[in-house]
Amino acid sequence: MTATQTAALRVEKLDRVFDVSAPFLSRLLYRQERRYLHAVNDVSFSVPSGGCLSLVGESGCGKSTVARLVTGIYPPSSGQIRFAPGRSGQPLSAQMIFQDPYASLNPRWRVKTIIAEPLRELKLRDTEALVAERVAELLGIVGLNVADGDKFPHEFSGGQRQRISIARALASEPEFLVCDEPTSALDVSVQAQILNLMRRLQDELGLTYLFISHDLSVVRHMSDQIAVMYLGRIVEHAETEVLFADPKHPYTRLLLETIPDVNSPHRDRKIVAGEVPSPLSPPSGCTFHPRCPLAQDRCKTERPNLETKPDGARVACHFA
Ligand SMILES: Nc1ncnc2c1ncn2[C@@H]1O[C@H](COP(=O)(O)OP(=O)(O)OP(=O)(O)O)[C@@H](O)[C@H]1O
Question: Per CATH, is 7-234 categorized as 3.40.50.300?
Fold first, then answer.
């Protein structure tokens, strides 16, 4: 982020611990201790106003939990989440777009009712005629027809359903959108259409995005910055171009190696070597050390802090 850009969102030292203990009686019978899972651990970042920061990492690294903390679905165990004032002068609030648009759309409601709900709930339009007019406008903004408003969610394809979710999210006139894997349930060609739509909306409506994905190739063209997470922590955070040109953390390099090469005859995605350890008993020192090609003894005992490199990248590795 440059000095002239203001941060729409600042997250500082965010932690979220889940109590995953067995029920009281079985703890008593089997003499089990309470168990805690540290899903998000000391996470700090800021998202420039009008920009896009993506959080990337394998399943279970804590990215969705960060999204849920930022949107207020979960309270943090500790740390700060601060939104800057929006255009109204009030602090921004975030709207969320989910991975599975079908699960997040009421199947019994017509699309126009789904999109109108936030308008009615927040009393953003005074009359039913104005609500209908705004619903038609929102359908147009996301590339659907007015007639689509009379249909039910099951009558649409996955990509169209995600367009409906976006229209509903936009109904409350948010300035900040948290997008949790919004395209990962879609076919590759449809993914590109939804990503293009989201980029266009970002420009036209001046939106700020926090984007969540397990896939670096998906976020590459969306993001100004990328933060790579591993077992609840950010291990590398850099401008997108810097991250792709000079990935420093061995985990970021592994993730980049899994991006399919379009020129390769074997375009299948490679699997990231090794398995993610259980967050219930994370490895000592640097939690990536059991999978790391650079690991030495120090990595088993000493956790590396995020350090800022000359090109601005923040990296947590003793040997990057
Ligand atoms: N409500 C919860 N209760 C207990 N554990 C949870 C809860 N939510 C998430 N977790 C655990 O926290 C860790 C991080 O989960 P999270 O969903 O944030 O990861 P993720 O990177 O988004 O993965 P995915 O892409 O699979 O959703 C996981 O080990 C998960 O099992």
Answer: yes
Q: Check if the beta carbon of residue 112 is closer than 8 Å to that of residue 132.
A: yes
> Minimal CA–CA distance to 77: which of 69, 89, 87?
69
Type of residue at 90 = Q
Nearest to 39 by CA among 55, 17, 23: 17
- Ligand 1 centroid from CA 189, angstroms: 28
Q: Is ligand 1 within 6 A of the CB of residue 20? A: yes
Please say whether the beta carbons of 184 and 99 come within 8 A. yes
The domain segmentation of the chain, as residue ranges, is: 7-234
Prediction pTM value: 0.92
Distance CA 233, CA 203 (A): 30
Whether 282 lines ligand 1, by a CB cut-off of 6 Å, is no
Give tens-digit pLDDT for 28-38: 888 888 899 99
What is the distance in A from the centroid of ligand 1 to the CA of 250? 23
Query: What is the crossing angle of helices 111-121 and 128-141, to 10°?
Result: 120
